Amino acid sequence: MDFLHSQLRHVEGQLAFVSVDPIDWKFYVQVISWAVTLFESYLLLRQYPLYSKTEPPAALAAHISASDFEKSQKYGKDKAKFALFSGFYKQCLDSIMVQFGFYAWSWTSAGRIMGKFGYGVEYEITQSIGFVFLLFFVSSLPTLPLSVYSTFVLEEKYGFNKTSPGLFVADLLKGWGISVVLLTPFLWAFLHIFNWAGDRFVPWLMAFILAFQLIMVVVYPMVIQPLFNKLSPLAAGELRTRIESLAGKLKFPLTHLYEIDGSKRSSHSNAYFFGLPWSKHIVIFDTLIQQSQPDEVEAVLAHELGHWYHLHPTKMLAVSQIHVFTIFALFPAFLHAPPVLASFDFPKAVAAHPPTIVAFLLFQMILTPLEAFVSIGMHAVSRHFEWEADRFACELQDKLSDEKMSDMGDRLGRALIALHVKNLSTVWVDWLYSAYHHSHPTLTERLKGIESFQSKREKKKL
Ligand SMILES: [Zn+2]
């Protein structure tokens, strides 16, 4: 532990200039955030012309009808236009908030509201929680029209929207309610750890974040998801039998098998699993069950169980711990840095003793460029995992010595194509756009991968 702390102090020493030099951090944040927005717009402009192609890629030509292809191109074009507009709109909002001292205003306002109830500045944690909610609530209002447009105009136009205005408002209120219920104790504990551990906060905070993530793995699907969707046990029948037998052969600790009414809000479809190492639950969207045959849904599940077999969720969690550690290791230099707060228009008295939460949020803004790189790296890892899970499904028959699974690759391919066509997903993708935005390989890449796993297997047999 002492070695860790001496290394962390070394990092802090290297960054000591942050707490004394009068750097114009506001200007830096403006330049960097605009650079990121312009880069994302550039990616959209690279991708845009591909929506005007009149023929699907050769590998897909046999599987997608001309009318579906045309519809998916139009949908992609509309989504790209919307993404371009909303990217600029959000960036303008953020820029205005940073330029005109919105963060400082939120802090002072939270203090003023507390003062009305007789609480002074000595209640820093209470003020911090008020500050976060004020910031979150006021800044989310101007982006509300974007989600209304996306749901009721864009998705509606292509027949995906199943949300009624009443459900939309109920979801929004539930979302806010859940944020208050979860975020309040989280922030309270987060800030208490800083107060209590002082400069030795890194390992304690890491342990706390990990514990919180693990608790959410259990709480989210059991408590939060049911507030939005109905999970019901999958009806007995061919699909249930197939999945139970597959899980049994792989020794997957399946406790519950659910069908979820994803179609209540949208016709996009999917399947996933969750739970603790000794008790797992599988959830399948009703839309997936409706559009694919039981043996194809089984292949989708074989892919999902590949994620479990290769410990992908655990590996992702480990990667995210490294990410969190990097953020915490860099933070101490910004924790007691009056010039940072001063450059974002905080009053002198507040800047002299920076409140932890304020320092942390400003530090997060300063980290924006690093986060863009982290997300590219995370996507690369995730795409590798997808490839590995596809291979797992294709090689299942060897693993389980079950001849009935010899066509698993074909079935998975058919299910992926059906999912893709029904969701009108983009078929022509620019590589740079995809590297930045996509956590999954493109459909063409996956079909090619499946084909090569199959042919390698056959060669081995000969
Ligand atoms: Zn996957």
TrEMBL record:
It is found in: Endoplasmic reticulum membrane. The keyword Disulfide bond does not apply. Binds 1 zinc ion per subunit. One of its GO terms (molecular function) is metal ion binding. Its EC number is 3.4.24.84. Its cofactor is Zn(2+). It holds the Pfam family Peptidase_M48_N. One of its GO terms (cellular component) is endoplasmic reticulum membrane. The chain crosses the membrane at residues 125-154, 175-195, 201-223, 317-337, 357-381. GO terms for biological process: CAAX-box protein processing. Belongs to the peptidase M48A family. Proteolytically removes the C-terminal three residues of farnesylated proteins. This is CAAX prenyl protease. It comes from Mycena belliarum. The lineage of its organism: Eukaryota, Fungi, Dikarya, Basidiomycota, Agaricomycotina.
